């Protein structure tokens, strides 16, 4: 049988408590400093697509699997699905299929029920 003297156990407990208290009593955490000349970029970017009809579609992609598409004052949430090319998003009613990225990328908004194309669009620079 292994025997630890009571005084050694008490000393170890006191030492552990002292180390824990010292670690917690360190300098307070400060938020990272940012330079005033470095602009903060948003985590989720709003993209604008100009369509052949003259309509505008706005979309954000908050995760790799979700698109929030705004068309005619309504926002729809769509989920990514497998596509042969580009990125394709679906919900019960709509399909949003994008190809490429950046200004000039193409996108198509369609009705799922009968595959009718609602809009053919191209991504434009912000604020245009």
Counted by DSSP, the helix tally is 1
pLDDT < 50 stretches: 1-38
Give a quick account of the main beta sheet: strands, pairing sense, barrel closure.
8 strands, antiparallel, barrel
Order of helices and strands: HEEEEEEEE
* CATH superfamily caption of the domain at 47-124: C-type lysozyme inhibitor
In terms of structural class, how would the helical and strand content be classed?
mainly beta
Helix-residue proportion: 10-25%
Can you tell me the CATH class of the domain at 47-124? Mainly Beta
Indicate the CATH topology of the domain at 47-124. Lipocalin
Write down the overall mean pLDDT.
77
Distance between the termini: 81 Å
How are the strands ordered across the major sheet? 1-2-3-4-5-6-7-8
Protein name: Membrane lipoprotein
Domain C-type lysozyme inhibitor: 49-116
Keywords: Lipoprotein, Membrane, Palmitate, Signal
Signal peptide: 1-27
């Amino acid at each position: 049988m292994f025997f630890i003297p009571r005084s050694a156990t008490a000393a170890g407990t006191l030492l552990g408590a002292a180390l824990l208290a010292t670690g917690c009593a360190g300098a307070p955490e400060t938020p990272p400093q940012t330079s005033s000349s470095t602009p903060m970029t948003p985590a989720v970017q709003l993209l604008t697509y100009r369509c052949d009809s003259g309509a505008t579609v706005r979309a954000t992609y908050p995760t790799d699997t979700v698109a929030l598409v705004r068309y005619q004052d309504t926002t729809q949430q769509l989920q990514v699905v497998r596509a042969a090319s580009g990125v394709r998003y679906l919900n019960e009613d709509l399909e949003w299929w994008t190809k490429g990225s950046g200004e000039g990328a193409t996108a198509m908004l369609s009705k799922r029920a009968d595959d009718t194309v609602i809009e053919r669009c191209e991504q434009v620079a912000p604020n245009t």
